[in-house]
Amino acid sequence: MPQKSVFDSLVLARAMPAAIPAFDAFDAHSAEGILMAFEEASCPGLIAVYDKTMDEANVDALVAYIRRRASALRVSISIILDHGRDLRQCRQAIELGFDAVMFDGSGMSIEENLRQTAEIVNLAKRSGVFVEAELGHVGDAAHYPDDLTGLTDPESAVRFVEETGVDMLAVAIGTAHGVYRNKPTLRVDLLRRIAEAVTLPLVLHGGTGLSEAQFKSVITSGIAKVNVSTDLYVSAESAIRSACKAGGPSYLELGAIARDTIKARCAHYLSVFNTREIAQ
Ligand code: 13P
Q: Could you check whether the bond before residue 17 is cis, i.e. omega within 30 degrees of 0?
């Protein structure tokens, strides 16, 4: 179907309030599970491709596969680079036809993050590609909460958005990537201050392990895009292990188990995020 821009959908989502998930795909099985969930729920969606996946020799074929399959659906699917490392990698994604790129300069000084993000926005705009950047730093859940430094400062967010021209902003409000050691505590008060200071769609990374109440609270406080990855793959691995214990699926059945488990987890998030209410 004709694509509504992902940015327009995210602006709608923030106003609703609702959120569009970005699910990371690594191969055809995971991409199929994600696409089927979006199609069955009649939701606009984002498929994310990690920086490391961009280094694989077959990434161009993977992106072409997702694009081809998405074009046959009745829903708008956009492809976004996840945690782009630098200008070179963002250029690679733009040349492969991505709709959006996320540049992750969150490990840099704010000045360097700002300078590199502005350069990437400048490049991306020429191709009509949207840019997400991260201010503050979303760390690793394995070290949570020791790794919980660098929360997003609302005043810096205003300056960062104005000076870079970025379309979406990923914020650090207490989430982390991966499986949490301890139950995460989110700074929704801080999120509200950021959302009052900047009007663009805000993004939450580290969706795995949050409760439904936490999701609802951040979505009603300005988050319009939520990234989820680890849960999809941990769930698929566990489904495959159970099937193996129960007698062992054939090699040909393994992909279908992964696809169907990922689809079910994606469907769960689409329902929690109220995504199906976003007009396409
Ligand atoms: P999780 O793997 O914790 O869900 O985080 C995903 C993410 O933020 C990808 O950018």
A: yes
**Domain segments of the chain as ranges:** 6-277
How many whole angstroms separate alpha carbon 138 and alpha carbon 175? 6
Mind listing the pLDDT tens digit for each residue in 251-269? 989 999 999 999 999 999 9
pLDDT grade for 2, boundaries at 50, 70 and 90: very low
- Give 250 Cα–ligand 1 centroid separation in angstroms: 30
Distance from Cα 206 to the centre of ligand 1, integer Å: 4
82 annotated active-site: yes
Q: Give, for ligand 1, the residue of 173, 228, 237, 268 to mutate: max count of ligand atoms closer than 8 Å to Cβ.
A: 228
Considering the segment(s) 6-277 as one domain, its CATH architecture is Alpha-Beta Barrel (3.20)
Rounded distance between C-alpha atoms, residue 171 and residue 186, angstroms: 12
Reported for 204-207, long-range contacts at CB under 8 A and 24+ positions apart, including other chains, are: 204/19, 204/170, 204/171, 204/173, 204/175, 205/134, 205/138, 205/170, 205/175, 205/177, 206/138, 206/141, 206/175, 206/176, 206/177, 206/178, 207/21, 207/175, 207/231, 207/269
The CB density around residue 3, as the number of other CB atoms within 10 Å, is 16
